[in-house]
Design brief:
Blueprint (H helix, E strand, L loop, with lengths): L2 H4 L10 H5 L19 H5 L8 E6 L14 H11 L4 E2 L6 E2 L5 E7 L2 E6 L13 H12 L17 H6 L8 E5 L2 E5 L7 H4 L8 H4 L19 E6 L4 E6 L13 E6 L3 H10 L4 E2 L7 H4 L5 E4 L7 E5 L9 H10 L2 H8 L5 E2 L22 H10 L7 E5 L5 H15 L4 E4 L4 H9 L6 E2 L12 H6 L13 H12 L3 H17 L4 E5 L4 E4 L2 E2 L18 E2 L2
Parallel strand pairs: 1-10, 1-11, 15-16, 15-17
Antiparallel strand pairs: 2-3, 4-5, 5-7, 6-7, 8-9, 9-10, 11-19, 12-19, 13-17, 13-18, 14-18, 20-21
Length: 549
């Protein structure tokens, strides 16, 4: 059976991806692949010694890169946070930028000028001192157009950034080294998201990278950073291995000796790995499998609030998807309420807009485009859409909820004359297709949306935003995004973000369709973690983990 045939199964023959997954075979104790967390043979194979405390986290998808200038997916962000450390740490529970944890010990603000003090004992994992020169070099690297960093527009408010990007200046005037441990950054305009965005600055050693291509140099195949863990090895599609950084600036951390981030690209197999004790935890098993996983009584569970929604990312470079009537028709044709009832089993919900429902900027009065197949057909007819025209539609293989969403959407759109050619792919392949080569039509992975800081909509939807993967452009929306970015009054900003959300939903820029239910699973031997909705959920704070071994 081909991938296309697999995803063309009649909906009535499918119980629903999550429900079907719940029926997988349960392993007997004598079938377990590993004897337990403290004695796994694979730890030795990864280079650890018997008895070392190593946390093994399972994931469905592979990271695209560990180059901190280029990261653009949750797996890569998490690895880079632990490898390089965030310049300014974001609290995993409150989303607030916090001095102390992170490379920056403290900061001072006067008008639009920040002076950041770097920890005196901040060093790279090879023992070399981390200085303000390294931080300035990294910021310049992000803003250099030759790097092609998806984070570039996050720092376009820095004085001189636009001139540097345009090639009319040799350096960014708003970035100044004060002394070896202090850096001054001056903004050209107010920027409500600036401190939050510093979490995406992963400082690298200038001495090792000066003059090299920050987009592609081989240094990033085995990089060093100042985070709690240092790079050991990476078997792409298998295990990412990191060990404790003995030079980490926070004394006594990490308490564990290392981590293994293992790709298990199938939700059912991932659940079995948790049940059998092959891995210590994951944030990706279907919540429908909780009872099965709980047969391993050592596992504990956390159900976090909803993040930004799943749905469809549209490529506006496609001649038909560039027409809002066609995008609106796609949204009107899919009964998301029914999908939630069938496949999310009461654990997820239909979504409204790009912002997580718990975020301060979420507009509770926002209304999604309703299910209306007749309206869908009317819109398609209004632009002369040829019946049967097809779009390539992709989700990441192994994610049963997204696979089910693809099947459901395929059936719904067929009824109004739109054909979806299913192209399920591996996670990292899809990330590259959307964020690098732009070779896609519709992708069921959310490349836009906000959990913590609504200012991220600026990079995602402004015409020249460095994370505008859809290729959408709207001068009126650009102006609103700039206003929201520069507005420091929360209540005023909330009103602007309401209008932004209304435009994004009414024009069906992307289909913000359903809130994905997550289940965070952790072996009880691993404690000290803080529940979070940021990258890798409860494992966001892995540097704080302790074990009872």
């Amino acid at each position: 059976m081909t991938d296309s045939e697999r995803f063309s199964i009649n909906r009535r023959t499918l119980v629903g991806g999550a429900a079907a997954a719940a029926a997988v075979t349960v392993l007997r104790p004598d079938q377990h692949a590993f004897a337990g967390p403290a004695s796994r043979a694979d730890l030795l194979a990864a280079g650890f010694q018997s008895g070392q405390n190593v946390v093994l986290v399972g994931t469905l998808g592979e990271a695209q890169t560990i180059n901190g200038f280029l990261v653009n997916d949750t797996e890569a962000y998490w690895r880079c946070k632990l490898l390089y450390e965030q310049f300014v740490r974001t609290d995993g529970a409150t989303y607030e930028p916090t001095p102390g944890p992170g490379i920056v010990e403290s900061w001072e603000l006067e008008d639009l000028t920040y002076v950041f003090k770097i920890h005196d004992n901040a060093t790279f994992s090879d023992g070399a001192d981390l200085t303000a020169d390294d931080a300035a070099f990294t910021l310049h690297g992000i803003l250099n157009p030759e790097t092609a960093s998806p984070h570039a527009s996050k720092f376009s408010s820095v004085a001189g950034a636009e001139e540097y990007a345009a090639g009319t200046a040799d350096s960014v005037s708003g970035i100044e080294v004060v002394d070896p441990k202090r850096i001054r950054v001056t903004l050209a305009t107010p920027d409500a998201s600036f401190l939050y965005n510093l979490r995406y600055v992963f400082v690298v050693p200038k001495a090792q990278l000066d003059g090299k291509n920050l987009n592609s140099d081989d240094w990033f195949l085995s990089p060093i950073g100042a985070g709690p863990f240092k790079f050991e090895s990476w078997s792409v599609g298998g295990d990412y291995v990191a060990s404790k950084n003995e030079h980490y600036y926070q004394e006594g951390k990490p308490a564990v000796d290392g981590l293994i981030h293992r790709v298990i690209p199938d939700a059912n197999t991932l659940a079995l790995a948790l049940q059998s004790g092959e891995i210590d935890g994951s944030v990706y098993p279907s919540p429908a499998l909780q009872e099965q996983i709980a047969q391993n009584s050592d596992m504990t569970f956390t159900l976090p609030p909803f993040t930004y929604p799943d749905g469809w990312t549209f490529n506006h470079r496609n001649e038909w998807l560039a027409k809002k009537e066609v995008r609106q028709a796609i949204v009107h044709a899919i009964d998301v309420e029914q999908f939630a009832a069938d496949s999310l089993l009461g654990l997820g919900e239909p979504a409204v807009g790009p912002i997580a429902p718990g975020n301060w900027a979420f507009d509770s009065e926002l209304a999604a485009l309703p299910y209306d197949p007749d309206k869908s057909r009317e819109l398609l007819a209004s632009v002369g859409f040829p019946e049967g025209t097809s779009f390539r539609a992709s989700v990441n293989i192994g994610n049963v909820l997204r696979e089910d969403w693809l099947i459901y959407s395929q059936q719904a759109l067929q009824a109004v004359g739109i054909t979806l050619d299913a192209e399920p792919q591996e996670f990292a392949t899809l990330i590259e297709a959307v964020s690098v080569t732009r070779d896609f039509d519709m992708v069921g992975i959310p490349f836009s949306g906000v959990t913590a800081d609504p200012g991220e909509l600026f990079e995602q939807f402004s015409t020249n935003g460095s994370q505008n993967d859809s290729g959408y452009g709207n001068p009126a929306l650009d102006e609103l995004l700039i206003q929201a970015r520069q507005e420091l009054d929360l209540e005023v900003a909330k009103g602007i973000y309401s209008e932004i959300q209304r435009i994004l939903v009414e024009e069906a820029v992307n289909h913000f369709a359903w809130y994905r239910p997550f289940l965070n699973v952790v072996h009880q031997r691993v404690t000290g973690l803080t529940p979070s909705n940021l990258e890798q959920g409860i494992f966001y704070s892995l540097e704080d983990a302790v074990t009872n071994e």
